[in-house]
Design brief:
- The longest helix has 28 residues, at 263-290.
- It contains eleven helices and nine strands.
- Helix 4 (141-148) packs across helix 6 (166-185).
- By secondary structure, it is α+β, with helices and mostly antiparallel strands.
- The chain has a five-stranded antiparallel sheet, with helices on both faces. The chain has a two-stranded antiparallel sheet with strand order 6-9. Strands 7-8 form a two-stranded antiparallel ribbon.
- The protein has helices at residues 3-16, 62-74, 109-127, 141-148, 150-159, 166-185, 223-229, 238-254, 263-290, 301-312, 319-334; strands at 28-32, 38-43, 49-54, 82-86, 91-95, 188-191, 200-202, 208-210, 217-220.
Length: 344
């Protein structure tokens, strides 16, 4: 056990007011993630367990995590309870949600139907939280644009080694502006910002809970829904995705979370929000490889590319972007060892 994990273990025992003989003598690694956070499980002698987290405060925004956790928890959001927190060292002690991610349970369409309806029911009260008193960042135009800039910087120029011309940069800027306007025109709600099958847990008794919510913002109402239904790690038939999306529209309108919107307007907002997200994610996954040495995300790039093109092809306003992507970027992507053909 390293000096850091030994220090973390001793802090956990102190925070729980437990003698050393009432818990395991070591922390068990649970996982790391796409950030600098590391998660460990501490098994207690009474049969329970807790999760210890090391989140370096110079690299992770633990203040936001604690603030959002308290907000969600106080409004009935099913998130892990924060049991203790050492601000200077970045040590956190949380309720243990177990190891059962939603992703491996999505084995077929019947399972997806079952769990996605549960996940939408989990999302609905979160979106219904009143935000006037919440200290959440705005998902504003600069934030939306900065996210999409990861695409040319890390995916196009970094991973594909393609240099954009002035006219290509202008083309992308025009697409980004349209997606920003669509996002900002939507009803603004609490946005988890990473609501997908690797951040949703199946708890004892079959209920669902969510993790990795610290980047929550006040933003577009379709963002979390499209993150769930057009998940970067699993895909479903487009007609089924549309059906689920419209089911959520009905739920949200009945709950007063969404105003009256036509199906066409809602689906366009949903589609364009997904396009913004997937353009961003292409950049993020490339950056994880190039900057952070995390190569596992490369295998997910083909699905994200397929989402990007399949949605953009539905809207003539993005015709030039689609043609350019297919002519310039696809051949370069196909030459990469991570590429595979994904059809939606």
């Amino acid at each position: 056990m390293s000096a850091l994990t030994s220090e973390l273990l001793q802090w956990c025992l102190s925070a729980l007011a437990l003698p050393a003989d009432q818990a395991a003598s070591e922390l068990t690694v649970v996982s790391g993630d796409a950030s600098f956070r590391c998660y460990y499980r501490l098994q207690l002698n009474d049969g329970g367990s807790v999760i210890a987290v090391h989140a370096p405060p110079d690299k992770e925004d633990n203040e936001s995590f604690a603030r959002v956790q308290a907000l969600l928890h106080s409004h009935g959001g099913r998130v892990p309870a924060l049991l203790a927190w050492d601000r200077p060292r970045g040590f956190l002690l949380q309720e243990d949600f177990g190891d059962q991610l939603l992703l491996p349970l999505l084995t077929d369409l019947d399972a997806a139907n079952h769990y996605y309806r549960q996940a939408m029911a989990l999302l609905l009260p979160v979106q219904g939280i009143g935000l006037k008193a919440a200290q959440l960042p705005e998902y504003d135009q600069p934030r939306l644009r900065n996210e999409m800039r990861l695409f040319p910087q890390w995916f196009i120029e970094g991973l594909l080694d393609y240099r954009l011309s002035a006219s290509e940069t202008a083309l992308l800027s025009g697409v980004f502006a349209q997606l920003e306007r669509s996002a900002l025109d939507q009803p603004q709600v609490l946005v988890h910002r990473d609501f997908h099958s690797r951040n949703i847990m199946c708890l004892a008794g079959g209920q669902l809970g969510m993790i990795d919510f610290q980047d929550a913002v006040r933003g577009p109402a379709t963002y979390d829904l499209v993150s769930l239904l057009r998940d970067c790690y699993v895909a479903w038939p487009p007609s089924q995705v549309q059906q689920w999306a419209l089911e959520y529209r009905t739920m949200a309108q009945s709950a007063g979370v969404l105003p009256a919107m036509t199906e066409a307007d809602f689906l366009q907002a949903f589609d364009w929000m997904g396009l913004q997200r997937h353009i961003k994610v292409l950049g993020i996954f490339a950056r994880l490889k190039l900057r952070d040495g995390k190569t596992a995300y490369l295998k997910d790039l083909p699905l994200v590319m397929a989402y990007t093109l399949s949605v953009a092809r539905r809207y003539p306003v993005f015709g030039d972007f689609v043609s350019w992507f297919e002519d310039r970027l696809l051949p370069l992507a196909r030459s990469q060892d991570w590429y595979r053909d994904v059809r939606l």
